[in-house]
TrEMBL record:
<dbReference type="InterPro" id="IPR020602">
    <property type="entry name" value="GTP_CycHdrlase_I_dom"/>
</dbReference>
<feature type="region of interest" description="Disordered">
    <location>
        <begin position="1"/>
        <end position="36"/>
    </location>
</feature>
<dbReference type="GO" id="GO:0005737">
    <property type="term" value="C:cytoplasm"/>
</dbReference>
<dbReference type="GO" id="GO:0046654">
    <property type="term" value="P:tetrahydrofolate biosynthetic process"/>
</dbReference>
<dbReference type="GO" id="GO:0006729">
    <property type="term" value="P:tetrahydrobiopterin biosynthetic process"/>
</dbReference>
<feature type="compositionally biased region" description="Basic and acidic residues">
    <location>
        <begin position="19"/>
        <end position="36"/>
    </location>
</feature>
<feature type="domain" description="GTP cyclohydrolase I">
    <location>
        <begin position="43"/>
        <end position="209"/>
    </location>
</feature>
<comment type="pathway">
    <text>Cofactor biosynthesis; 7,8-dihydroneopterin triphosphate biosynthesis; 7,8-dihydroneopterin triphosphate from GTP: step 1/1.</text>
</comment>
<feature type="compositionally biased region" description="Basic and acidic residues">
    <location>
        <begin position="1"/>
        <end position="11"/>
    </location>
</feature>
<dbReference type="InterPro" id="IPR001474">
    <property type="entry name" value="GTP_CycHdrlase_I"/>
</dbReference>
<dbReference type="GO" id="GO:0005525">
    <property type="term" value="F:GTP binding"/>
</dbReference>
<dbReference type="InterPro" id="IPR043133">
    <property type="entry name" value="GTP-CH-I_C/QueF"/>
</dbReference>
<dbReference type="Pfam" id="PF01227">
    <property type="entry name" value="GTP_cyclohydroI"/>
</dbReference>
<dbReference type="GO" id="GO:0008270">
    <property type="term" value="F:zinc ion binding"/>
</dbReference>
<dbReference type="GO" id="GO:0003934">
    <property type="term" value="F:GTP cyclohydrolase I activity"/>
</dbReference>
<dbReference type="InterPro" id="IPR043134">
    <property type="entry name" value="GTP-CH-I_N"/>
</dbReference>
<keyword id="KW-0378">Hydrolase</keyword>
Amino acid sequence: MTDGTPTHDEHDGTDDERDGTHDGWDGNGTHDDGPVDREQLAHATRLLLDAIGEDPGRDGLVETWERRVPAAYEELTRGYREDERPTMRTFDTETDDLVVKTGIPVYSLCEHHLLPFHGVAHVAYRPDGEVVGLSKLARYVKWASRKLTVQERLTRDIAEGLDDAIGPDAIAVELSTTHLCEAMRGVEAHTTTTSRATVGDLTTDERERFRDAIAAER
Ligand SMILES: Nc1nc2c(ncn2[C@@H]2O[C@H](COP(=O)(O)OP(=O)(O)OP(=O)(O)O)[C@@H](O)[C@H]2O)c(=O)[nH]1
Ligand SMILES: [Zn+2]
């Protein structure tokens, strides 16, 4: 065991496992130096399973709380980690022609219900001497989305983060998503929410081009 995560075989279903002190742990309460406390996550997931009336000791669930859920949350919350922020290499450009990128996948978590919201992001910017590698836009959106947030704040975070990284004359970001907290619980309405954030001003013509590119994407 190198990562402090207990394996299935080490679980014997005894009560002392509830506080994370059973033999499966590394014994000194440490965990990966990563952004999440995997031990706490395992403990919390086990409590959650208990609370909903499940049996955390049954075969199908042991690895769920011990390993899978902690690992999944580590991945889904990468956006909190500055050291995971993508490197945004830029290139000199002589053109100030609008760069438009549509259909970037977005998967994030709503901070109200800890449920996913997902959809697409669209980005348009007018360069000021520099453009960024095309893949970096999608990399940035992916990183920025991996945290608990609300859509409006995420949209603004992406616009401001890309503005910092690229230094364009103007940039606009649009997100179009479905929130599972609305779709599979509560109001149970499968709807689309669109939000937009801008830094600087796109011209009327540029706004039209952005709108047309988004429409063509649908
Ligand atoms: N503006 C905005 N609202 C969000 C977002 N994600 C979830 N919400 C809403 O946040 C609200 C939270 O409302 P509350 O009344 O505190 O929570 P609730 O009782 O679970 O509400 P319902 O979802 O209506 O059952 C809900 O209306 C959600 O639809 C988001 O990204 N942006
Ligand atoms: Zn929600």
